[in-house]
Amino acid sequence: FEAYLAKQANLVDETNVEMLHDEAELSMGESIFISKCTPCHGQFGEGNSIGPNLTDDYWLNGGGIKNVFKTIKYGVPEKGMISWKSQLRAADMHRVASYILTLKGTNPPNQKEPQGDIWTEESEEGEAIGMK
Predict the structure, then answer these.
(1) pTM, whole model, 2 decimals?
(2) SS3 string of the chain?
């Protein structure tokens, strides 16, 4: 049964991903974030000279779980972000994307200035039905 669930977890992609709320899953996402993402996004998601701040309401490539998952999966090569799809399983990208969204509003020290556009859940809904 656990092997079946693991296989199902790896079928997630940017079209069907949903926010995880399970503390164990988010903890795994945090561990992956710390080991893979902190060089560019800082230990607390505050951003640095390379990566943007992940704790505010502004997003360069869209916020929300689907856009964050897609950005992790495919990267943004022109901005220096690599694609993680060959290094992380889909379930792990799902965990990291969900963890990143828990950083919103945490107000860590030394935050990078906002970049991109303000993102709200309504923005995601409008995009999903073709209104954006």
Answers:
(1) 0.88
(2) CHHHHHHHHCCCCCCCCCCCCCHHHHHHHHHHHHHHCHHHHCCCCCCCCCCCCCCCCEECCCCHHHHHHHHHHHCEHHHCECCCCCCCCHHHHHHHHHHHHHCCCCCCCCCCCCCCEECCHHHHHHHHCCCC
